[in-house]
Specification:
The structure is a single chain. By secondary structure, the chain is an alpha+beta fold. The chain has one domain: Ubiquitin-like (UB roll) (Roll). 13% of the residues lie in helices and 24% in strands. The protein contains two helices and five strands, in the order ββαβαββ. The longest helix has 7 residues. The protein binds FE2/S2 (inorganic) cluster (FES). The site of FE2/S2 (inorganic) cluster (FES) has 13 residues, from loops.
């Protein structure tokens, strides 16, 4: 069972679980401010579920790559979209500030 460290908590899930769903089911603040209600609910189009991830996850797909190439993210970003990520091992996940989680201050 992979362990995910995030916002001072450690949660567990199964290999292959969707990171967005795991975080929401464990009451982790994946979205900032009004993005809590204004988001694409996992379609990979809004970009508000962006997080920094250390650990083993599924490779980036075309949909995620396309959204992350657009502002306020950008081609050089190291963020991932939680809704497009499958957990493949233990992770350290960091959410940053800003509507899209594009900032530099961890929240
Ligand atoms: S929830 Fe919209 S891109 Fe992930």
């Amino acid at each position: 069972m992979p362990k995910i460290s995030v916002q001072g908590k450690t949660v567990e899930c199964a290999i292959g679980d969707n990171l967005r769903q795991v975080l929401l089911q464990n009451n982790i603040d994946l979205y900032n401010g009004s993005a809590t209600v204004i988001n694409c609910h996992g379609l990979g189009t809004c970009g508000t579920c962006a997080v920094e991830i250390q650990g083993n996850v599924s490779p980036i797909g075309w949909r995620e790559k396309a959204r992350l190439s657009l502002p306020p993210h950008g081609a050089g970003t190291t963020r991932r979209l939680a809704c497009q990520v499958q957990v493949m091992g233990d992770l350290q996940v960091t959410k940053f500030d800003g509507f899209w989680g594009q900032g530099n201050q961890p929240v």
